[in-house]
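The following block was generated as part of the benchmark described in Methods. Ligand: zinc ion.
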Amino acid sequence: MIAFTCDVDWAPEEVIEDTINLFELFDVKCTFFSTHHSLILTKSNRKLFEIGIHPDFNPLLKGNSAKSFEDILDDILDIHPEAQGVRTHTMFQSVILLQKFADKKLLYDANNFLPYQTGLKPIRLWNNLVRIPYNWEDDVHWAYGYGFEDCRMNIDEDELIIFDFHPIHIYLNTENKYRYDEAKKFYKNPNKLLEYRNSEVPGTRDLLINLLKHCKNNEFQTHKLKDIAYQCLQNNF
Ligand SMILES: [Zn+2]
């Protein structure tokens, strides 16, 4: 099973729209983990797109949050009451949070990252939350020093392969941290960001387009994470 996910990470509307357009072009499903209210995401086609939440609990760690962890969670759930899944920003995890996710009737968490591992399986946790691991992420790919001509995963429908992209890196076609660090100061200015788009070597956007083409040309079924979670519960893993 192949699934695409995107962590929105406060991207501006034009940047989110650019990502949505690519998935629509190739008719491939994607689960977005949202950080804020986005009209373009809210209006997006639910046949292709699922919206989960991407809360940021880091201010709690830094000691500069006026909000409790419950407030942070409720704020994003108020924006996306339909959300059934959660991936936290920077994979912030704790058993207290897992319990809170279950109390809020979320179906699954997608916080466990196992880079390039095969044999992934969703599992049902003690509180009935389904844990769906994932095995590829754009910014970690360059952290390993890998090039974007290939994702280093065997795209095989018999394997569970879950990609995590960021709209900003799709927009910038990011290939390394230096490009992102330079462009970051114009995060909210899509026109300016275009000046920083990589056109020199394969980057995140090129890789995504190749993967989307591959899925379309091979008629691969792609999945939303909530469907993977339901299937896990049905099979009672
Ligand atoms: Zn994030």
